[in-house]
Amino acid sequence: MEFSFPHYLLSKQSVDDRALNRTVLDSLKANLPAAPIRIIEIGAGIGTMLVRLLRWDVITKADYVLVDEMGENIESAKEWIPLWAGESGLTVERIAENQLRAFDRARDVRIHFERGDVFDFIQKKPAPADLLIAHAFLDLLPMPESMPKLLALTKDLAWLTINFDGVTSLEPAIDAALDEQIERLYHETMDARPTGGDSRAGRHLFDHLRMAGASVLSAGASDWVVHSVDGKYPADEAYFLYFILHFFEESLTGNAELNAADFASWLNERRAQIERGEMVYIAHQMDFLARV
Description:
Blueprint: H1 5-11, H2 13-19, H3 22-31, E1 37-42, H4 48-55, E2 61-68, H5 71-87, E3 91-96, E4 99-103, E5 108-115, H6 118-123, E6 129-135, H7 146-151, E7 154-171, H8 176-191, H9 201-211, E8 215-221, E9 224-226, H10 237-252, H11 260-275, E10 280-291
Parallel strand pairs: 1-2, 1-6, 2-5, 6-7
Antiparallel strand pairs: 3-4, 4-5, 7-10, 8-10, 9-10
Helix pairs in contact: 1-10, 10-11
């Protein structure tokens, strides 16, 4: 199977749609300033959060800055967002090489694409946003030292979503002891990343935000729960599951604590479970809305 990270980001749209905590989302809606607003999203991928906020009528008039380090993501965003907008009845204008405008009678969003490391972006001292978004991103960064730098990007709100919080579950069991070992070692790779990361980032954000001078307005679980219906996974979620196993394979191949043959057999059986529509995947995560 060909593995494409932009395709993975597309495939998890429906998973994220279900997972995002509605209480935290309602708090975001209640606290957003009057339009037009300025939004900065870090680790923005291909723009699925921007599209979601338009689909869900959370934003109508905005200046939206997408920041991502991966050139592949930014190039995909430049192609996919106009395609989605056109199919959704919005007019799209290309203002400049890295700027678009998508609008209709009710909505008008100017989109800016910024390729680069988030901390390099912060060094440019961009105009602070009304809302900072970090979606499935903060658990990849060194904490707590990153939080004050990130919050400098907003003068008001930070919506921090899908922060992994230490629970991965794959069902049905293959071998209880092996399953537990693989899940434990997988979490340990998150904690050992040289670039930073935390397998319990969700629960730790309460303290990181407090130490950075922010107050939590709302928080709640945003678990990924993926299962088949009548033997078939919704939307493109089978690809999403294959990519999750790809993460496991990349992270744990060659791990000295793990028997290579047992791990290869485990991966093959998990893939067969997906093919049969049997595998259930659960990951515990947390969403936050904070005010600086």
